[in-house]
Amino acid sequence: MLLKEGQVRIPAGCAISGIFHKDGKKENGERIIKSISTMHDRSNGLGGGFAAYGIYPDFKNDYAFHIFYDSNRAKDECETYLKENFDIIAMAKIPTRRHPRITDEPMIFRYFVQPLQTVLAFSQLDEKEFVVRKVIHANHNIKGAYIFSSGKNVGVFKASGFPEDVGEYYMLENYEAYSWTCHGRYPTNTPGWWGGAHPFALLDTTVVHNGEISSYDANRRFIEMFGYSCDLLTDTEAITYIVDYLNRRIGLNYSEIANVIAAPFWSTIEKKPEEEKKRLTYLRNAFASLLVTGPFSILVGFEGGMMALNDRLKLRSMVVGEKDETVYIASEECAIRIMQPEFDKIYAPRGGEPVILTLNKGGNAQ
Amino acid sequence: MEFTANTTYYQELQNQIRNCDDKEIIIKELYGQRYIGCATSDKNFKLYGTAGNGLGQYNNGSTIEVFGNCQEAVGDTMNSGDIIIHGNCGDACGYGMRGGRIFIEGDVGYRAGIHMKAYMDKFPVLIVGGKAGSFLGEYLAGGLIAILGNGAQGKMPCSYFCGTGMHGGKIILRCDEKPDGLPEQVLVSEMTEQDREELTPHIEDYCKYFGLNAKEILSNRFYVLTPNPNSGYNQLYTFE
């Protein structure tokens, strides 16, 4: 029997790409698809996906759940669970086009939901924590159902296949986003299930990741103490929960999160000025189990912003190009040059030094 | 012969190049196509755009000139020839290189010149006009690396862990003050006349390629990093 993700551990290689419009301008998915296609050989056709921010303006105050179902039974069971906890404002199949290289698709549905006020009040949780717990509960307990996108005004679109094919399959030319991230996957040992593709998402946090973290189990053990369930056993899922935990629950800003997960070496901290030394030492000590080791370059999307980060040794490539109010980030320079031939500034961020982008006004950087 | 790459898949582009007997190869609109000039020995490449990973890997005597930036693994394990980059270069440039020269006008990324080595008449050289990332010349076993520090304002022109595990070769850094914080495998000294003589012909060629003044560059203060014979590594690779 084919083992799915969650039953077998899968290391991954990969390509990432992102576009962020600081002025909030929106564009459809055509350029990001073109971008990722230049890095075709960084993927092997076993996973591709996109996250798009600002795509559901008509439902911007509702949680947008994107769900894979393996069977009608899973769909019935999951919908029953959703109805017990949420008011479903709207639901529909996510539109797709038939694609010769995208096969074995599950049923893919989208729901716009609001927590049922009575259930929410009874739970004594804040709204976001309520939604998180319900999503994790469904993913952990309902066999054959997987909520892979759960934020407001953001959507994840992913599948087993090459990312450029996945983009065409989901008809991303029909979505207008101010922020796009994208991922092409190169797992070395995979059953190729759709859920294992990136981005991984929880609420409005999405993560695409190139690399393989060697601290996975240490990170998983720590994060699972706080109610998260790493059901897919992929390192990117753990990074997503770490970012959600540090930001939403602990209240760290993205720069501090970078100092935790890609903490500088002690020998580097030693050379910093006194105040900075104290700050970095505190973060390393307080969240020692959330240090992420091994090679990675990630793009973290969040409401109104994006963070790009390399591991502290910079064992994966990443380049950033800025042109007017738009920032382009990718694993390879060719992937941003194909979108924008000339830049005002182009550079490779140093290992462990985050690039944090937010919308010009009203952005939620913290 | 002139080719236009644009989004042509690298394999097809390479086949076109291999099927061409011309010595002069010009490629326009490169968008990250990999392995250009790989294992060639008698060609002159002129590349316009962004050169993909593995540019000039195993280069065995070709001259490869890039008008644009390069990505990762330039000149990996190359044996001879020159690679000239009018722009910046990504990570792991000149990895395990044992001959030939790489000239970079701008900056180079992390892990440049790792484990370069010299053998008999083979002597690899890496000249970088700007700055270098961390792990420059890690495990260096032979050859010459020079970082000219353009844009570093006289500060040490490379980042952390420079020369870690170094047991041969020479790293020359342009900076105003003696670099500190280097690993124990590295000895630092001011550049001697002998070092300058060794460096000069390569700087002259560098300046020829990029239209700069060699005398002006060489008039700056340089520091030379060599392996510390007391670090123990020398016994691993020599048979004295």
Q: How many β-strands of chain A, per DSSP? A: 16
- What's the helix-strand series of chain B? EHEEEEEEEEEHHEH
Query: Uncertain segments of chain B of ≥5 residues (pLDDT<50)?
Result: none
Task: Please report the total strand number of chain B as a whole number.
Answer: 11
The tally of helices of chain A reads 11
- Under the CATH scheme, which class of chain A? Alpha Beta
Strand portion of chain B: 25-35%
CATH homology superfamily of chain A: Aminohydrolase, N-terminal nucleophile (Ntn) domain
Task: Describe the structure in your own words.
The complex is a heterodimer of chains A (366) and B (240). Chain A has helices at residues 30-37, 72-85, 117-123, 127-141, 163-169, 216-224, 235-249, 254-261, 266-269, 274-286, 333-337; strands at residues 15-21, 48-53, 63-69, 86-93, 107-115, 145-149, 154-159, 179-184, 200-202, 205-211, 296-302, 305-310, 319-323, 326-330, 345-347, 355-358. With 366 residues, chain A is an alpha+beta fold. Chain A has a single domain (15-358), classed as 4-Layer Sandwich (Glutamine Phosphoribosylpyrophosphate, subunit 1, domain 1). With 240 residues, chain B is α/β, with parallel strands linked by helices. Chain B has helices at residues 10-18, 193-210, 214-218, 234-237; strands at 2-4, 24-31, 44-50, 60-67, 80-86, 101-104, 125-128, 141-147, 168-174, 186-190, 222-227. In chain B, strand 1 (2-4), helix 1 (10-18) and strand 2 form a beta-alpha-beta unit. The longest helix of chain B is centred in the last third of the chain and has 18 residues, at 193-210. Classes of the chains: A alpha+beta (366), B alpha/beta (240). Chain A binds chain B through residues 37-41, 265, 268, 271, 313-314, 317, 319, 332-335, 337-338, 346, 348, 350-351, and chain B through 7, 9-10, 30-32, 34, 49-50, 52-53, 69, 71-72, 88, 90-91, 109-110, 133-135, 159-160, 181.
